[in-house]
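Repro:
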Amino acid sequence: MQITLQPREGATMAPGNAVRVHCLAGVLWITNHGDSKDRVLKAGDSAELCAAQRRYLSSVGRNEAVSFEVSGPAASISLHKVGGGAVSGGAGERLRQVLRGLRRLLD
């Protein structure tokens, strides 16, 4: 399954089985619900994701879409795009800090 997210757009994924995510273009940020081990994939990078956790996937760039491919049993993947609306409160500030750090690493 190939997915493209526009800038400031995200998606949630809760696979029923382990899947492989392969970044095709742009920079993909993967966060795990209840886990602080974020992953950042650039074009050509891949990651194996276990089935145990819900994940949030998003484009890192302000002006760059991200395309990625998810390999695994398609029936086990529940993917829902979420809009690029503003995040507020303490979670929003933490997200902005993480994104600034990621941009510094990628520049």
